[in-house]
Structures are given as structure tokens and as C-alpha cells.
């Protein structure tokens, strides 16, 4: 008789790993350090056929995930919002580390057929670190600009301006580091050139997609739109239809995609500008029209990454 596969949910914090075995209902706790990772591998290997789900936790999940993959154990990394939405769907509103581990295991059970196993990529991780830090500095600069506009004290205004100048210099260094890293690898360089071939999709969007959306080109159009958070989900019941609403997704990717969609509209991308104008003439408000344009843009980029062919406007 074939032994049923055990699905392992791991909730990660800085100091510990809460582990849940589904459907056995067993749970245990280990330290989130090398000794704990080794002990985890030993215990999991005794279970036979397994798959592991880990919730992304600000980088604390990387150590155990890498160790498990090196031990030839299949690992899936979930966005926290996905697990939380799954728990709400089951009406599990309580939130503790052991409960979260159980929900991760249940979420893995429900999605494993379509989920993509985690594969550590040191180059992509370096790129993600550079892109992530750049995004934080850009956000800080934007916040300082708004703050500076309200200041009257000359000394504080000068200090804020000096900080903004410093941020611009660091961002410029990061841009060069990102460009050098992408150029150093033929595969990344080719994917980058394909993505920036789309009018409006500049270096910032292309590097963000390479770093934070590895699924690009590997999944379908609807799935990639949902992953970014630009896919509307129906809200219809009986005779009531409130229209679709976008929720969830990767906010860091969505923020850059929004700016790229605006750029594509303004620079006259023949596909996206006409698409946006048609929606506006049909009476769709500006914000939903922009979101729809974002969805069309990520769909185009997904197809380009899948087919490995540069942008070619339709006649």
C-alpha cells in the first residue's frame, strides 16, 4: 500500500520554526538556525513522501528553505497574503504561529497542483536585494519631498534637501550595480532586453520583474495578473453584481508596473495607449482603466518572456 504524502507547513519567525504535519495533525517547534534546519531534515526524511510549504517572512525563510532544497526536499514558498486569505476562507480568524503552520499546510494541499517549487537562485537573490533597497530609497525620497514642501524652517529644509541629494547619489550607484549584475549573465541580459523592448517598460520595471517575479513567462496570463494583484475577482450574488475588485498580489511589483503603464500611455505605446483611450471613451473611470492597462501590460510581458521574442506591435 502506498504511503500518503505528508504536507508540511512551516511558519517562520526570526528565532523559531513552527512545523505542522498534515493530515497527521502533528506539530513541533525547532530553532531557526543551522542546528534546527539539520534537525528538521532528519525528522522530515523519516516521513517518506513529503512536500513542504513555507510562508515568506521578510527573509527569515531563506535559510530553512535553502537547506531543505539542498537536502532534495520539495519546497513551496507562499506569500503571507495568500495564506491569510486561505485561512479567512476557512473562517479561521485566530492567528498564532502553530495555527499559521497548519494553515500553510492546508494551503499547500489546496494549491500544490498549480504551485511552482522553490529553487534558490543566488544571482536572483542578489538582484532582489539591490532592487528592494532601491525601492525603499525611492519611497523615502518621495516622502521627504512631500515633507519638504510643508517646511518653513530654513535649517530643516536644507537638511532634508541634503538627504534627498544623498539618496539620489545612492540610487544612481544602485542603478549601476543592477545594470552590471544583469549584464554579467547572458540569460538575465537577454530577458532584460526582451522586456525593455516594450514601449513604456523601462529598466526599472524590467529589473523589478527579473528580481521579484520569477514566475514571469512560466504561468498563464490570468495567473500572472493575479500574482501581481491586477486581476479583478467577481463579486456577484443573485441579481447583484458589484463588479470585480483587485486585491492581494505583490505590491512592490504592482507599484512599478503602475508607473510603467502610465509611461506607456503617455509615450503612445500603440497597443496600450489605444486600449486605455478606448476604455475611457466607453465611460470607464481613470483608475480602473489604468489598472486594466496594467493588466494588459503584464500579460504582454508574460507572453514575451514565455515566447522569448521581442515586442512587435500588431498591425
Please explain how this structure is put together.
With 315 residues, the chain is of the alpha/beta class. The protein has 3 domains: 106 residues, Nucleotidyltransferase, domain 5; 64 residues; 120 residues, no CATH class. The chain has 12 helices and 7 strands. It has a 5-stranded mixed β-sheet. A hairpin with a 3-residue loop joins strand 1 and strand 2. About 4% of the residues have low confidence.
Write the layout of secondary structure elements.
Layout lengths: L5 E7 L3 E7 L3 E6 L2 H12 L4 E6 L6 H9 L4 E4 L1 H10 L7 H15 L10 H28 L4 H30 L2 H11 L6 H10 L8 H8 L7 E2 L2 E2 L9 H16 L5 H10 L4 H22 L8
Parallel strand pairs: 1-4, 4-5
Antiparallel strand pairs: 1-2, 2-3, 6-7
Helix pairs in contact: 1-2, 3-4, 5-6, 5-8, 7-8, 8-10, 9-12, 10-11, 10-12, 11-12
How large, in whole angstroms, is the Cα Rg? 22 Å
SSE order, one letter for each helix or strand: EEEHEHEHHHHHHHEEHHH
User: What composes the largest sheet?
Assistant: 5 strands, mixed
Order of strands, widest sheet = 3-2-1-4-5
Report the helical percentage: 55-70%
Number of structural domains: 3
DSSP summary: helix tally: 12
Strand content: 5-15%
Large-scale geometry = globular
What is the averaged pLDDT score?
87
Question: Are there runs of 5+ residues with pLDDT below 50, and where?
Answer: 233-246
Helix/strand/pairing class, anyone? alpha/beta
Q: Care to count the β-strands? A: 7
* Amino-to-carboxy terminus distance: 59 Å
Amino acid at each position: 500500500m502506498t504511503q500518503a504524502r505528508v504536507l508540511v507547513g512551516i511558519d517562520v519567525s526570526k528565532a523559531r520554526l513552527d512545523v505542522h504535519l498534515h493530515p497527521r495533525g502533528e506539530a513541533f517547534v525547532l530553532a531557526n538556525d543551522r542546528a534546527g534546519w539539520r534537525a528538521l531534515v532528519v525528522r522530515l526524511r523519516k516521513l517518506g513522501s513529503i512536500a513542504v510549504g513555507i510562508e515568506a517572512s521578510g527573509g527569515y525563510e531563506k535559510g530553512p528553505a535553502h537547506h531543505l532544497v539542498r537536502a532534495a526536499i520539495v519546497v513551496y514558498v507562499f506569500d503571507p497574503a495568500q495564506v491569510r486569505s486561505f485561512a479567512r476562507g476557512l473562517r479561521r480568524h485566530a492567528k498564532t504561529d502553530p495555527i499559521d503552520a497548519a494553515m500553510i499546510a492546508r494551503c499547500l494541499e489546496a494549491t500544490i497542483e498549480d504551485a511552482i517549487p522553490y529553487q534558490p537562485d543566488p544571482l536572483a537573490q542578489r538582484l532582489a536585494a539591490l532592487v528592494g533597497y532601491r525601492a525603499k530609497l525611492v519611497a523615502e525620497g518621495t516622502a521627504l519631498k512631500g515633507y519638504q514642501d510643508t517646511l518653513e524652517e530654513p535649517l530643516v529644509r536644507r537638511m532634508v534637501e541634503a538627504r534627498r541629494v544623498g539618496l539620489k547619489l545612492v540610487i544612481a550607484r544602485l542603478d549601476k550595480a543592477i545594470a552590471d549584475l544583469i549584464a554579467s549573465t547572458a540569460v538575465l541580459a537577454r530577458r532584460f532586453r526582451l522586456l525593455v523592448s516594450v514601449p513604456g517598460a523601462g529598466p526599472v520595471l524590467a529589473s523589478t520583474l527579473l528580481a521579484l517575479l520569477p514566475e514571469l513567462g512560466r504561468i498563464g496570463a490570468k495567473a500572472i495578473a493575479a500574482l501581481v494583484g491586477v486581476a479583478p475577482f467577481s463579486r456577484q450574488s443573485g441579481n447583484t453584481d458589484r463588479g470585480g475588485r483587485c486585491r492581494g498580489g505583490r505590491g512592490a511589483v504592482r507599484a512599478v508596473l503602475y508607473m510603467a503603464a502610465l509611461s506607456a500611455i503617455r509615450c503612445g505605446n500603440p497597443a496600450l495607449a489605444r486600449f486605455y483611450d478606448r476604455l475611457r471613451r466607453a465611460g470607464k473611470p481613470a483608475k480602473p482603466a489604468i489598472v486594466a492597462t496594467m493588466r494588459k501590460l503584464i500579460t504582454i510581458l508574460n507572453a514575451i518572456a514565455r515566447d522569448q521574442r521581442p515586442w512587435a506591435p500588431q498591425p
